[in-house]
Design a protein that fits this description.
The chain is built from 5 helices and 7 strands. By secondary structure, it is α+β, with helices and mostly antiparallel strands. It folds into 2 domains: 100 residues, Alpha-Beta Plaits, CATH 3.30.70; 58 residues, Alpha-Beta Plaits. The strands form 3 sheets. The chain has a 3-stranded antiparallel β-sheet with strand order 5-6-7, with no helix packed on it. Strands 1-2 form a two-stranded antiparallel ribbon. A hairpin with a 2-residue loop joins β3 and β4. α1 crosses α2 and α3 packs antiparallel against α4. The radius of gyration is 20 Å and the shape is flat. GO terms for molecular function: RNA stem-loop binding; RNA-directed DNA polymerase activity; RNA-DNA hybrid ribonuclease activity.
Amino acid sequence: FAFSVPSVNKAEPAKRYHWVVLPKGMKSSPTMCQVFVAWALEPVCKRYPQLIISHYMDDILIAGEKLQKETILQILTSELKQRGLQIAPEKIQQQSPWKYLGWIITGSSIKPQKVEVKSDVKTLNDVQKLVGDIQWVRKICGIANDGLKPLIQLLGTSIQANEKQSLGPEQQRALSQISEKI
């Protein structure tokens, strides 16, 4: 994710910043990313209205009946590059099954990726991964926001991914109930 910060009264060139990971604690960073990627994809969406181009943050899904994969990928890569974004070649999926936002998509079905509930939580990053994995399937498994609340409370206000965390009795009960539903 890249962005520029203009100087006061244009006294000097704008400073350009690039994040590999969105900063934690900056409330608008997901929105900024979403808007920026939408802006970068707009020319491709207008050029190919017959295709479904869906994106969430940095995940992009392109689908259509007569999809010319090589052509659209080349155009997409070029448009994104012109706007300062790039696609990591190892992230491009051209064959079924496709993995997108916690789902496995084939020619005939869409199903959630297997969620492995890991209760071995040692750091804030472990909690973030755990809550993130549960978020993808919570609606289809009937997990209410209240069921996640004890785990979300562990996220707190810390911004250090390696900060030590552990599951207390309340979080372990919540995780046990969530595991049963999954």
